[in-house]
Amino acid sequence: MGITSAIVLYAVFWFMTFLVVLPIRITTQGDAGEVVPGTHAGAPQTHNLKKKALITTGLALVLWGITVAVILSGVISVRDLDWFHRMGPVEPV
């Protein structure tokens, strides 16, 4: 795995984790009973983006580390995911 692949993989994990963490423990304006005129009742009252970004960074780092370890160790390879046998036989080294 190259450095560019590792960075792109981390970015994918970070954004996927951020989208999962974002709606957790959110207080909407409708829940708080203080809807600002011109906004939707489902708009966040408090969003805590800095805290959620830090949590996301930690979780993404752990998930990325596990994935990189699996890829670099060779436990799972691309050939393991070739369910339709399209890659052909392995050539001897």
Structural overview:
The chain has one domain. Helices cover 52% and strands 5% of the residues. It contains three helices and two strands, in the order H-E-H-E-H. It has helices at residues 3-21, 29-32, 49-73, and strands at residues 27-28, 44-46. It has a two-stranded antiparallel ribbon with strand order 1-2. Helix 1 crosses helix 3 (49-73). The protein is elongated, with a radius of gyration of 21 Å. The two termini are 20 Å apart.
What's the SSE blueprint?
Blueprint: H1 3-21, E1 27-28, H2 29-32, E2 44-46, H3 49-73
Antiparallel strand pairs: 1-2
Listing every helix as H and every strand as E from the N terminus to the C terminus, the arrangement reads: HEHEH
The fraction of residues assigned to DSSP E strands is 5-15%
Work out the count of structural domains.
1
Major beta sheet, strand line-up: 1-2
* Count of helix runs: 3
Oligomeric form: single chain
Secondary-structure-derived class: mainly alpha
Q: Biggest sheet, in brief?
A: 2 strands, antiparallel
Keywords:
93 residues; 52% helix; 3 helices
Summed up, what is this model?
With 93 residues, the chain is mainly α.
